[in-house]
Design goal:
There is one protein chain. This protein is of the alpha/beta class. Helix content is 35%, strand content 16%. It contains 12 helices and 13 strands. Strands 1, 2, 3, 4, 5, 6, 7, 10, 11, 12 and 13 form an 11-stranded mixed beta sheet that branches. Strands 8-9 form a two-stranded antiparallel sheet. Helix 4 packs parallel to helix 5. The protein is globular. The protein starts with 18 loop residues before the first strand and ends in a 7-residue tail after the last strand. Bound molecules: zinc ion (ZN). Zinc ion binds next to loops.
Length: 327
C-alpha cells in the first residue's frame, strides 16, 4: 500500500469535499454492549469519565483546527451542561444521540418520539440553537423501525447518521446504500449519511470508526477510506470519548462485547491524529451541503415505502436533481 499526500484533491476537481467527523458523546457505562449488566437507573453510581475524555478529543481537534459533529446523549447533557456549551463554543456542530441510549428497534414510535423530543429540547435549551442532526444508539434504525425516519422529519431533524449498511448482530441494513442519500417520507425528507463502508461488487467492508478503527491495522483503515474517496464520495467517521481511555473501569459482559469495547484503546488517540493528518474533515451538514453542490443535486433518493422492501427485492433508487440543497 502506498499513501499519496492530499488524496482528497485527486477526487474532486473543484474545492475538495471534506469527510464527516462525528463523535457520540457518551460514557463507558452507556454503551449498548453492556446494557444487560448496567441498569440505566444506576448510571449515576458509575464514576464519570466522559467530560475528561471529550475534552481530550476537543483538544486534539482544536490543535488541528478541525470541526466535527458531536451527537450528545441527553443524559450526559443533563448531567454536564457545561460540556455541551464548551463543545458549542469551540465551533462544533451539535446533534442528538437520544436521551436514554435505547436501541430504536426495541421501542414503540411514541416512546421513540418522547425520548427524541426530550434530548432535542434539552440541547436547544442549552445552546439556543436548533438541533438538526441525529444518530440512534448503536446505529439502530433498521427495517424494524423505518418509521423513525419520518418521526425525525416531523421533529425538525434534517440529517440522520443511523443506518449502517452492513450486517452486524446489533445493527445494520446490508441492502442500504453506502453513500449519502435522501429519504422521502410522507412528512418530508431527511438526508442519510451512513458510516464509512467500502463497497466493491458484493463486498462491503465497514471502516468508519469505532471498533473497526481499533481492530484493523491503521494502514488498512487508511487504504479503505482512500478507496472510498477514489469512488468519488466523502466518508463519515465516528468515535466515542471512551475509546481514548485505556484506564476506564472494566465492566462485566460477554467475551465478544468485552473484546469489541476494550481492544486497542491505547492506540486510538495516536491513530486519530494520523487520520486527521491524512484527510480533510468537517461537520455532517457541511459535508452533505458541499457534496450536493458538487454533484449539482444529483443524488440517490429513496422513498420510505421502498426502504421497507429493500430486503425483498433489492435496492430501488432514483437519481434526480434536487435543484440545490434541500433543507
Ligand atoms: Zn452510543
Amino acid at each position: 500500500m502506498s499513501f499519496l499526500p492530499s488524496p482528497d484533491r485527486d477526487v474532486f476537481s473543484a474545492r475538495p469535499v471534506p469527510n464527516a467527523l462525528t463523535v457520540d458523546v457518551e460514557d463507558y457505562y452507556h454503551v449498548s454492549a453492556f446494557e444487560g449488566q448496567v441498569d440505566r437507573t444506576r448510571w449515576s453510581e458509575y464514576p464519570g469519565r466522559v467530560k475528561e475524555n471529550t475534552e481530550q478529543l476537543l483538544a486534539i481537534f482544536r490543535r488541528r483546527q478541525v470541526r466535527a459533529t458531536f451527537f450528545i446523549l441527553g443524559w450526559v447533557a443533563q448531567h454536564d451542561p457545561d460540556l455541551v456549551r464548551q463543545i458549542q463554543a469551540e465551533g462544533h456542530e451539535l446533534g442528538a444521540h437520544s436521551f436514554w441510549h435505547q436501541r430504536i428497534y426495541t421501542q414503540l414510535p411514541d416512546a421513540f418520539r418522547e425520548d427524541l423530543v426530550r434530548s432535542r429540547d434539552l440541547l436547544t435549551q442549552l445552546t439556543g440553537q436548533p438541533v438538526r442532526c441525529y444518530r440512534a444508539a448503536s446505529f439502530s434504525i433498521t427495517p424494524a423501525c423505518w418509521w423513525a425516519l419520518e418521526i425525525l422529519v416531523q421533529e425538525g431533524f434534517q440529517y440522520d447518521c443511523s443506518v449502517f449498511p452492513i450486517w452486524h448482530d446489533r445493527y445494520g441494513v446490508p441492502e442500504a446504500p453506502v453513500g449519502i442519500y435522501r429519504v422521502e417520507t410522507p412528512s418530508g425528507s431527511i438526508w442519510e449519511f451512513p458510516p464509512a463502508v467500502y463497497q466493491i461488487a458484493g463486498l462491503k467492508v465497514p471502516c468508519g470508526g469505532g471498533g473497526y478503527f481499533r481492530l484493523y491495522p491503521l494502514g488498512l483503515t487508511l487504504w479503505l477510506l482512500r478507496a472510498i474517496r477514489r469512488q468519488g464520495r466523502p466518508f463519515l467517521f465516528y468515535l466515542h470519548p471512551w475509546e481514548l481511555d485505556p484506564q476506564q473501569p472494566r465492566l462485566p459482559g460477554s467475551l465478544l462485547s468485552r473484546f469489541r469495547h476494550y481492544w486497542n484503546l491505547s492506540a486510538t488517540a495516536r491513530r486519530l491524529e494520523e487520520l486527521l493528518d491524512q484527510f480533510l474533515f468537517a461537520p455532517v451538514s457541511e459535508v452533505v451541503e458541499e457534496y450536493l453542490r458538487q454533484k449539482e443535486g444529483h443524488i440517490e433518493v429513496l422513498r420510505l415505502g421502498d426502504l421497507g422492501k429493500l430486503a425483498e427485492k433489492g435496492l430501488k433508487t432514483v437519481i434526480q436533481p434536487l435543484g440545490g440543497v434541500q433543507s
